[in-house]
Specification:
With 318 residues, the chain is mainly alpha-helical. Among the domains are: 40-99 and 180-265, no CATH class; 102-176, no CATH class. The chain has 10 helices and 10 strands. A hairpin with a 4-residue loop joins strand 9 (167-169) and strand 10 (174-176). The termini are far apart. It is found in: Membrane. It is an enzyme of class 2 (transferase). GO terms for molecular function: protein-cysteine S-palmitoyltransferase activity. Residues 137-262 form the Palmitoyltransferase DHHC domain.
């Protein structure tokens, strides 16, 4: 269990016994998100900073760029990318978590019977160690008393099963899952473009400062610009771009972060998987249109997925 899962679990247990104080304590878990928006910390080493907006507007566009038309164009592009990043972020937060439907929950009697025939070690039920007669042909969550659809997993941080679970992100205080995976990816995508645009357009200001004879007058604003450029370059572009490449690599083979760490094995066929080809895999996440907008265009319900079976052809020997 990760460090943030331990924190979430302790807070959830405390809230069950102390509802009032637990409510306010749970709200504190959003401190990483709030500080990220205010630009006080990094998110995956990315600056989301009001300070960077100030530097770009008043120093890059207002001081170093001499053409008003060029400055206006640069500012419009930068603001548009930042707006799309924030829109994607809030969409991933407000869309809600894809929970397992209530009709997948079993009765207490069935739950007790399942627990009775399942080995229990170190505080966990281990269905994989059941005998063949006890082994189940379905996935079951002993904590939620619910059947688990394919690709769903129990999130120890949230304390519930999540449909097409990817991972729990402490920086947005939510699970990345079936409903918010697309806006989460677009958030990373537009944040990366924002960082790249800032760095590329700021290089001109860097050259102008070097060629400018009046270094003393421009030294303070240039130092502010250089600080943001270094922070964006070192703590922004590399990890963001790496994460973006990682997730699009997962999409290309139709896997989640959880499945990449622990590959899922479909029952009765160890060679079956969800990889339908890059085009279909992409469509499952982004739909048929509006790819660049954080809107729900998914073609799947998160409960049922098309499976690819590998057909082995045997050639008889003569």
């Amino acid at each position: 269990m990760s460090w943030y899962s331990v924190i979430y679990t302790r807070v959830r247990e405390y809230s069950e016994n102390n509802p009032i104080s637990g409510f306010f304590l749970a709200r504190l878990l959003n401190v990483l998100l709030v500080m990220q928006l205010l630009g006080l910390i990094y998110r995956d080493n990315e600056i989301r900073s009001i300070y960077s907006f100030y530097v770009y507007i008043y120093i890059v566009c207002g001081r170093f760029l001499q053409s008003p038309l060029q400055a206006t164009f640069y500012l419009c592009v930068y603001s548009s990318l930042a707006f799309m990043a924030l829109w994607s972020l809030f969409s991933s937060l407000l869309v809600g978590m894809a929970k397992v439907p209530q009709n997948w929950t079993v009765s207490p009697e069935i739950d007790a019977a399942l627990k009775e025939c399942t080995p229990f070690e170190n505080g966990r039920y281990l269905p994989d160690k059941s005998t063949n007669e006890q082994a189940m042909d379905f996935r079951y969550c002993y904590m939620c008393m619910s059947l688990k659809p394919d690709r769903s997993h129990h999130c120890s941080s949230c304390g519930r099963c999540v449909v097409k679970f990817d991972h729990h992100c402490p920086w947005i205080n939510q699970c990345v899952n079936h409903t918010n995976y697309k806006p989460f990816l677009l958030y990373i995508f537009y944040s990366t473009l924002t960082v790249v645009w800032f760095l590329i357009t700021s290089l001109e200001c860097f050259v102008r400062f070097i060629l400018n004879a009046n270094w003393l007058e421009d030294s303070v604003p240039f130092s502010l610009l250089l600080t943001v450029m270094v922070a964006y370059g070192v703590f922004g572009y590399y990890p963001l771009g790496e994460m973006l490449i990682f997730h699009f690599g997962l999409i290309s083979v139709n896997e989640t972060t959880c499945e990449q760490a622990k590959p899922s094995v479909l029952k009765f066929d160890f060679k079956a998987d969800y990889n339908l080809g890059r085009a279909k895999n992409f469509m499952q996440v982004f739909g048929w249109g509006l790819w660049l907008f954080p809107l729900n265009t998914s073609l799947e319900d998160g409960l049922h997925f098309e499976i690819r079976y590998e057909i082995l052809m045997y050639k008889s020997s003569e």
